[in-house]
Amino acid sequence: MAKSHSEAAQLRQLLRLFALFGNPVRVVIFQRLARAPGSAGELASRLPISRTAVVQHLKRLEAAGLVEAELRGRRRIYCVRREGLAPFARWLAKHSRT
User: Fold this and answer.
1) Does domain 21-95 have CATH number 1.10.10.10?
2) In the 3-class helix/strand/coil scheme, how is 56-73 assigned residue by residue?
3) In 3-state terms, the chain is what percent helix, strand and coil (to 5)?
4) Would you say 80 and 30 are in contact if contact means Cβ atoms under 8 Å apart?
5) In this structure, are residues 61 and 67 in contact, taking their beta carbons and an 8 Å threshold?
6) Cα atoms in the Cβ-side hemisphere of radius 13 Å centred on 51
């Protein structure tokens, strides 16, 4: 159980991130963006879901701070925000001490 409001907030943030990655499509999208930036259309062309569905997944990842988009002309190019993984890194570091 969390000992403070700060720890409780960190735990809620971590649980939201775990929930996001509970969806295999979002995991694949994140992995592909970790390899190279791309647009929703590019991602959709390599996935068995529509561009609209990819955009919805990207919105959730972006809202969580895991990806960000840059406008290039009329396209939004998405890339991973490594800082968005900080809650995972802190949790892993805390629980992997031996």
Assistant:
1) yes
2) HHHHHHHHCCCEEEEEEC
3) 60, 15, 25
4) yes
5) yes
6) 8
